[in-house]
UniProtKB/TrEMBL annotation:
Coiled-coil region list: none
Isomerase keyword on record: yes
Keyword Isomerase attached: yes
InterPro entries linked to this entry: Chorismate_II_sf (IPR036263), Chorismate_mutase-related (IPR051331), Chorismate_mutase_GmP (IPR011279), CM_dom_sf (IPR036979), CM_II_prokaryot (IPR002701)
PROSITE patterns to which the protein is assigned, alphabetical: CHORISMATE_MUT_2
Protein name: Chorismate mutase
GO molecular function: chorismate mutase activity
GO biological process, one term: chorismate metabolic process
Pfam families assigned to the protein according to its UniProt record, in alphabetical order: CM_2
Residue ranges of every copy of the Chorismate mutase domain listed in the record: 1-87
Sorted UniProt keywords: Isomerase
Length: 90
């Protein structure tokens, strides 16, 4: 595979990921609303750990497991920020 072909694969994966990330964000909004209505904190450490553990088990290529966990940690950090700024603090 050459560079151009590899980049096309990355572009295709990105195109497929964006709607899934949006779907996840829609769920994050609902969770944030629930947390606000019930005076719950944005951070739920046990849930976050459970999500990361599941993500690790979903990773087929174990060479990528640490990187995939870091990506999901970044996603969760971003969604916690979003919940705090756009939902809780409104």
């Amino acid at each position: 595979m050459n560079l151009e072909e590899a980049r096309k694969l990355i572009d295709q994966a990105d195109k497929e990921l964006v709607p899934l990330i949006e779907q996840r964000m829609n769920a994050v909004v609902e969770v944030g609303k629930y947390k606000k209505e019930n005076n719950l904190p944005v951070l739920d450490e046990s849930r976050e750990k459970a999500v990361l553990d599941k993500i690790g088990s979903y990773t087929e290529n174990k060479d990528f497991e640490d990187s995939v966990r870091k990506i999901f940690q970044a996603i969760m950090d971003t969604t916690k920020e979003y919940q705090q700024e756009k939902i809780i603090d409104e």
